[in-house]
Design a protein that fits this description.
The complex is a heterotrimer of chains A (about 300), B (about 525) and C (about 375).
Chain A: H1 3-33, H2 41-59, H3 62-86, H4 91-109, E1 124-125, H5 136-140, E2 144-145, H6 146-164, H7 166-176, H8 178-183, H9 188-214, H10 226-236, H11 241-260, H12 267-271, H13 273-287, H14 290-293
Antiparallel strand pairs in A: 1-2
Helix pairs in contact in A: 1-6, 1-9, 1-10, 1-11, 2-3, 2-4, 2-9, 2-10, 3-4, 3-9, 6-7, 6-11, 7-9, 10-11, 10-13
Chain B: E1 18-27, E2 30-40, E3 44-50, H1 56-63, E4 71-76, E5 79-81, H2 86-91, E6 94-97, H3 109-114, H4 125-140, H5 155-168, E7 173-177, H6 185-200, E8 204-209, H7 212-218, E9 221-226, E10 229-235, H8 241-249, E11 267-277, E12 283-293, E13 296-301, H9 308-315, E14 321-328, E15 331-332, H10 338-343, E16 346-349, H11 353-357, H12 364-367, E17 379-380, E18 383-384, H13 386-400, H14 416-428, E19 434-438, H15 446-461, E20 465-469, H16 473-479, E21 482-487, E22 490-496, H17 502-509
Parallel strand pairs in B: 3-8, 3-9, 6-7, 7-8, 13-20, 13-21, 16-19, 19-20
Antiparallel strand pairs in B: 1-2, 1-4, 4-5, 9-10, 11-12, 11-14, 14-15, 17-18, 21-22
Chain C: E1 2-4, E2 7-11, H1 17-41, H2 46-58, H3 61-86, H4 94-111, H5 116-145, H6 149-169, H7 202-221, H8 223-233, H9 235-240, H10 245-272, H11 278-281, H12 285-295, H13 300-324, H14 330-349, E3 351-355
Antiparallel strand pairs in C: 1-2, 2-3
Classes of the chains: A mainly alpha (about 300), B alpha/beta (about 525), C mainly alpha (about 375).
């Protein structure tokens, strides 16, 4: 295989495999911008993956499947929001509990569906005109599902929303300094609930994409730690939706390469690459030192109690 | 009791802007407000005077909707209202400048003002606000650049942002909680000008303070609170310092501490050309030099954020020294760990006593050995010796009058004054050669403050070199033998306390005057 | 303070022990109730199922011994995690540290030439060291580079799992094992003995209990333990007191990871007698140990008992699978639920309920 076609397929697959990471990361960025860490992404994604598959298989509509995946992700996130925002329990532990619960529940519900291929998968698009461009056409405008383009569009919209609008200002303020936001009449609880819920919706879609588009089938534990990669990407992207694009597609490429390079290295060793890189990437941002960490929302991980500074 | 509020017998033309009637609010174990009555009229500056913990801030938080009162009524312009949240308060025309500013530091001034503001557009709300801000700034003389990030601003500028936030929301009543605590005397004068301008425009201003002089200077009426109750309300022109002080504290107050003359010995702490960076990587100290001798107190005056925190941390071994030297008893300690410096005999009374000074969940006795747990008699071959620890704790509790149910009580259950006594007991045990005290009496009541000042003086008399960092100029003037004024990481001058005037120190704090630093 | 009808809720700062215990029991009971619908979904009456499980497990010594067998890795991992949590280090990596121990033990069992009498002790030693190494990495990453400990420990779980996969499919695949991804079986000298009529490898069990006692002593009685508690409760005060974070967190994670490594040794030397795919060696013991440690509220001795409780849940899962035909995944759902209720109910501990008294009967102001 020549270099050009190798590059084309790598970029194309990096985009395709980066999609669930991108959706998950965008959602987590919003939750964390409002001050809530949700380590339950893995659980929300697996629930989304199962739901999308089950609904698509039963109704024949992958779109409906994705919709339901978003819903179940959102509902799971609401559970986290209730425990962390209303009850003000430890956000790390609640997120871990959500992940354990989601993995267990999806495994339990999915027992009858194991291994069956999906009849109706999410269609891939070929953009008329653009796909004819040499190199760029097959690289970017063929064999992608709608979620690739929607994800990129969403990243831009969410960036604008976060940094250029009233709502974004409120979200960022709640994550930086909830007591200030509260003193100006912003409903901190509501903002946090909405952001965590929104994060759940996106994580659900990200998971659903896996089972109705990328690898149209259901296998237990098919998210294989992508939810944790999402958490790392959120930090790596410095809580910025546009930077999440590069991070997600970089890891998409890593996942793809872990299949492509099997001729040269044992597949098991290739598969551990994304996880190793997640640590490496965080260590590199750590070299940036305090400057990087300063970008974290000021009240990240802290429950808000009125009357305390 | 119910029904229409009683008409005011005097000044009856207009109902008061704010009328609080019989407000009661309790927290676990504390009755913060006990049937409190308070009012503000348009065009009036009404001071709320009281010690720390008298309930002033609680009362204002109730008015601002942050707390709900247990009982009592609130009338705004004669109408009875329920204020459930700050949003309600803002809509009723109430604005509040909290003692600890409610600002989002990484955001710009305009973004801070635009947050939660009604009538701003969905897109780019900060841009529209910036325009309006410039108009208001000129009208009231509150100058600040809308595009700057708040963390870059001085405390005085941040306070202006807070006032602008309230004004842009149409506040007719402005609550200022200890507004001068972060200002230089000159900045205070500026603020007073702004307040008088607002008063002329018909605003009502509630001015919370515990400083008698400034209350007498700015207020029209003064209400004094003590232990959650209103002691009385008087007209400013009829009040005097002694009366107010008696009302505030409940007994006669001595304004002077007994202080012997100082006999400085050799320099125990010497700092030469010290350069230190802040958390953000900027220069916080730019070539500072000074010395503190045994048997003297050197006061470091300055507005918060001019490098005091970094100075204290560098001396305690908690911050890297980029250039220059720190000498303790003649030994250079650059690059040594906090433990090594502490072992040399340096006591450190930290600025944030609960965040840094204690481990809240550990018992009092274990908190008392925080700095010395690794040395005999408390530690032997890696094991803790609880008999020695208990013995030490008993002595310390008695000697410093720490009020605690038992040495095993978690430190977080102690009151602020007792936590500070605990820290002093720990730090001053074993006769330190150098004592670094950062804001040692901040937020404490009069009794604890007096005791802690006496303890510091005793340390001086026993031959320790004391470095006292404080924002409270009165405290520095009272305790220090020499005063060093710090401004933007430089020392503007060191003057003997006996010769210093408030005005001179104030000019130095504002960076407008520099005195030649003595050898 | 809040009011609800005639009751007044007041916050309390430090709940007494019986309240902590009661709330914990309540969380477990409520989780059992919440899991009931799952049984209904499978056409079983949940109460009868619970009763059947109880009878099945407590009915005979061999079946009860399964609780002990399952509790062994949970004790070791759980005790290690209590230590890490006391230092506020989020070690979610016991799973990977356990596998690291299993790998090292397998290496010693199959490939190291040593006198047979030394083989098992060396397996434990190297298992401890491997787990300690795998735990030390995230500690150093956090202290030196500020890498989030939750993510680094989690990621290292996956890395170690794939390393085990690679070993059993590749270089260490046993020539006699044909199609199976196993290493060769351990020699007899590398196998742990059982209590009679059970699969309880008692050496590891004793090791676990001894370690729990030692760690409890370490925390309560030693200088290091004191420093760990200070670091965990108030890092700012620790820095102020001149405590060396690098040293304290490194030691904590060497111990925490090492104990998980010992659990890995126990599983390969006591149960499987070979290295095989990671999901067989550890049935999420490392993750379950998080709940064990959390339920024990950071007390290593309490972790012995909470580990036994979760050993019971694992044994129940086995019993459901074989006897009632219910899927083992129920335990996963159940574990998540317990953790949720546990942290959710924490709030209860910090509120005291009493009957409202008349207005005006106020407690006077506390002294300064």
């Amino acid at each position: 295989m020549d270099f050009a076609s190798w590059l084309i397929s790598t970029v194309s697959r990096a985009l395709a495999f980066g999609v669930p990471l991108l959706w998950g990361t965008l959602g987590e960025i919003y939750a964390e911008r409002a001050g809530v860490v949700n380590l339950g992404v893995e659980g929300m994604m697996i629930l989304g993956a199962f739901m999308a598959f089950a609904v698509s298989q039963s109704t024949g509509h992958p779109g409906l499947g994705l919709f339901c995946a978003a819903l179940i992700g959102g509902v799971a996130a609401l559970l986290h929001a209730f425990v962390t925002v209303t009850i003000r329990a430890n956000q790390y532990v609640s997120g871990l509990a959500l992940s354990m619960f989601g993995l267990g529940l999806a495994g339990l519900l999915g027992r009858g569906w194991e291994g069956k291929p999906l009849g109706n998968t999410l269609p891939t698009l070929t953009i008329p005109g653009l796909s004819r461009i040499p190199v760029l056409g097959p690289m970017l405008f063929q064999d992608q599902t709608i979620l690739t383009y929607l994800g990129i569009f969403l990243a831009v919209v969410l960036w604008l929303l976060l940094f250029r609008t009233r709502w974004g200002l409120a979200i960022r303020s709640v994550g930086e300094n909830p007591s200030t936001a509260d003193s100006l009449g912003i409903n901190v609880t509501l903002v946090r609930y909405l952001c965590v819920f929104f994060g759940g919706l996106l994580a659900g879609v990200g998971g659903g994409y896996l089972s109705v588009a990328y690898r149209p089938a259901w296998t237990e534990g098919m998210t294989a730690g992508m939810g944790w990669i999402v958490i790392a990407l959120t930090i790596f992207a410095a809580w910025d939706p546009l930077q999440a694009l590069w991070g997600a597609f970089f890891f998409g490429a890593l996942y793809h390469l872990s299949y492509r390079l099997q001729a040269y290295l044992a597949p098991e060793l290739l598969k551990l690459m994304p996880y190793l890189f997640a640590i490496v990437v965080l260590a590199i941002s750590g070299l940036g030192g305090a400057r990087w960490r300063r970008r974290a929302p000021g009240a990240l991980g802290l429950p808000y109690v009125r009357g305390e500074r | 009791m119910l029904g229409v509020p009683k008409e005011r017998p005097t000044h009856a033309e207009q109902p008061p802007l704010v009328l609080l009637r019989d407000i009661t609010k309790s927290f676990p174990g504390v009755l913060a407000n006990d049937h409190v009555n308070f009012e503000v009229r348009p065009g009036e500056i009404h001071a709320l005077l009281g010690e720390n913990g008298a309930g002033k801030t609680t009362l204002m938080n109730i008015l601002y909707g942050l707390y709900r009162p247990d009982s009592g009524e609130i009338y705004i312009r004669g109408e009875k209202v329920q204020i459930r949240s700050p949003r309600d308060a803002i809509q009723l025309g109430i604005g509040m400048v909290h003692q600890h500013f409610k600002l989002v530091l990484p955001h710009t001034v305009a973004e801070n003002v635009a947050l939660g503001l009604n009538g701003t557009p969905f897109w780019a709300p900060a841009k529209v606000v910036a325009q309006k801000l410039r108009e208001l700034s000129t009208r009231y003389g509150l100058h600040v650049d809308p595009e700057r990030r708040v963390w870059e601003l001085s405390a005085g500028e941040q306070q202006r942002v807070e006032i602008l936030k309230a004004l842009i929301r149409g506040a007719e009543v402005l609550i200022l909680d200890e507004p001068t605590s972060v200002l230089t005397p000159q900045e205070t004068a500026e603020l007073f000008k702004v307040l008088r301008r607002m008063k002329e425009e018909g605003h009502g201003i509630i001015f919370i303070s515990h400083k008698l002089d400034e209350v007498l200077e700015i207020a029209d009426r003064i209400t004094v609170m003590r232990r959650g109750k209103v002691v009385g309300t008087l007209l400013a022109q009829e009040a005097d310092k002694a009366t107010l002080a008696r009302m505030m504290v409940g007994r006669e107050v001595v304004f002077r501490l007994s202080k012997t003359t100082c006999n400085p010995g050799e320099a125990a702490l010497r700092v030469e050309d010290l350069y230190v960076r802040s958390d953000r990587g900027l220069w916080a100290l730019k070539g500072i030099s000074f010395a503190v001798c045994r048997g003297e107190i050197l006061g470091v005056a300055g507005i918060a954020g001019n490098g005091q925190r970094e100075l204290v941390e560098a001396l305690a071994g908690l911050r890297r020294v980029e250039r220059g030297r720190i000498l303790i008893l003649g030994k250079e300690v650059n690059g040594r760990s906090a433990r090594a410096i502490s072992d040399l005999g340096v006591a450190h009374i930290p600025e944030e006593r609960i965040r840094m000074g204690i481990v809240p969940g550990l018992p009092v006795e274990e908190n008392l050995i925080l700095k010395k747990h690794h040395r005999p008699p408390f530690c032997w071959r890696g094991f803790l010796r609880f008999l020695a620890i208990r013995e030490f704790a008993k002595r310390a509790i008695e000697e410093y009058g720490i009020i605690t149910p038992s040495p095993k009580t978690p430190a977080k259950l102690l009151s602020g004054g007792n936590i500070q006594r605990l820290i002093l007991a720990r730090e001053l045990s074993g006769r330190p050669a150098v004592v670094i005290a950062a804001h040692p009496t901040y937020g404490l009541d009069v009794g604890a403050t007096e005791q802690i000042r006496q303890i510091l003086l005793r340390q001086r008399d026993e031959g320790a070199a004391v470095l006292l960092v404080s924002e409270d100029l009165e405290e520095i003037m009272e305790l220090a033998d020499r005063i060093a004024v710090i401004f933007r990481g430089e020392i503007m001058g060191i003057v003997p306390a006996a010769e210093a005037t408030l005005e001179e120190i104030g000019l130095m704090m504002a960076g407008e005057k520099r005195v030649k630093v003595e050898g | 303070m809040r009011r609800l009808g005639p009751f007044v809720f007041e916050p309390r700062l430090s709940p007494p022990r019986y309240i902590v215990f009661g709330v914990s029991v309540l969380a477990v009971v409520v989780a059992l109730l919440a899991a009931a619908p799952v049984f209904l979904g499978y056409g079983q009456n949940p109460w009868q199922a619970y009763a059947a499980i109880g009878r099945g497990i407590f009915g005979s010594w061999p079946s009860f011994s399964e609780v002990l067998r399952r509790a062994i890795p949970l004790i070791l991992c759980g005790v290690g995690l209590t230590l890490a949590f006391r230092a506020q280090f989020w070690n979610i990596g016991a799973e990977g540290q356990l596998l690291a121990g299993a790998v090292a033990a397998t290496g010693v069992a199959l490939f190291l030439r040593v006198p047979e009498g030394l083989r098992l002790p060396l397996m434990f030693l190297f298992g401890f060291l491997a787990g300690a190494f795998w735990g030390l990495i995230p500690a150093l990453l956090r202290v030196k580079l500020g890498v989030n400990d939750v993510i680094s420990t989690l990621m290292l779980n996956y890395v170690m799992a794939y390393i085990v996969e690679w070993l059993v499919h590749g270089p260490w695949k046993g020539p006699t094992m044909r199609g199976f991804a196993y290493t060769d079986a351990f020699p007899l000298a590398a196998r742990l003995s059982f209590l009679p009529a059970t699969r309880v490898h008692w050496v590891t069990l004793v090791l676990g209990v001894v370690m729990a006692v030692l760690i409890a002593l370490l925390l309560a009685r030693t200088r290091l333990g004191y420093e760990i508690r200070v670091v965990g409760q108030n890092p700012d005060a620790a820095r102020y007191a001149g405590i060396n974070f690098t040293v304290v967190l490194s030691l904590v994670m060497i111990l925490s990871g090492g104990l998980a490594g010992l659990a890995g040794v126990g599983e390969v030397a006591g149960i499987h007698w070979r290295l095989r795919s990671p999901s067989h060696i550890s049935m999420n013991y490392g993750y379950t140990a998080i709940i064990v440690a959390w339920l024990a509220r950071g007390n290593p001795l309490a972790a012995i008992f909470t580990a036994l409780l979760f050993g019971l849940f694992f044994a129940a899962g086995d019993y459901m699978k074989t006897t009632l035909g219910l899927p083992f995944q129920i335990t996963g759902v159940f574990n998540g639920l317990i953790l949720f209720f546990l942290i959710g109910f924490d709030l209860l501990m910090f509120w005291r309920v009493r009957l409202a008294r008349k207005e005006g009967a106020w407690i006077s102001q506390a002294g300064s």
